[in-house]
Amino acid sequence: MFSVTYAQLNTWMTAFLWPFVRILALVATGPVFGNMSVQTAVKIGLAAFITLIVAPTLGPMPQATVFSAVGVWIMVNQFLIGAALGLTMQVVFTAIQASGEFVGLGMGLGFATFFDQQAEGSSAVLSSYLNVFAMLVFLVLDGHLQMISALIATFQSAPISGDLLGAPGFRSFVTWGSTIFSSGLLLSLPVVAALLIANLALGILNRAAPQIGVFQIGFPLTMLVGMLLLQLMVPNMIPFFARLFDSGIERMGVVAAGLR
Asked: Domain coordinates of the chain in residue numbers?
């Protein structure tokens, strides 16, 4: 007759549950997997599948029961680590959405918004367009697989334990947030600069010939210039996105190492 002792059951649960919490936190907060359109059951199933593959390769777990005070604290630590890694990668897509906001304001499309299920609020049309384009590039470049690989590598740099998380990791994550503004502005700079020149030309034209009615032609002209430049920028966006994704994957390792 097959029998299982409490010690064996606790060993199996700790070997599965603690890595599962870290992986599930990244799946829930990271790009693509954490999208609101992905069902919760799919996220849990994906995290469980990855855990079944990864758990046997991990070292010995801390000597604590799952539902003890120490076990619950370890579970909280794993959730914080996974969420920090997922949000670190999510910053890259937030920077791309910010560039869409900057371009949309310059084109006069600040009013063109619709309800975004992911953001649970109004989102600019160009931001959503660039976000979807970036997600497609992310999947084509196997960014989702690289993100999972970086997560698995964090079990070596930040092993499962009940120690307090290090402040350098959170500090590295906070400083990484500046990428939203720097990379967003860098991506939108060509279109914003061209639209600024177009607006200056329209201002000069309005002073030179007020009878032309610059307010009637200004909006269609700026929109036409913006759309044309976005079309010309598409081939150059892919290498830019690739560098951003690589930086995000690298930052995940830095954050994980700083948490220990």
From this structure: 6-258
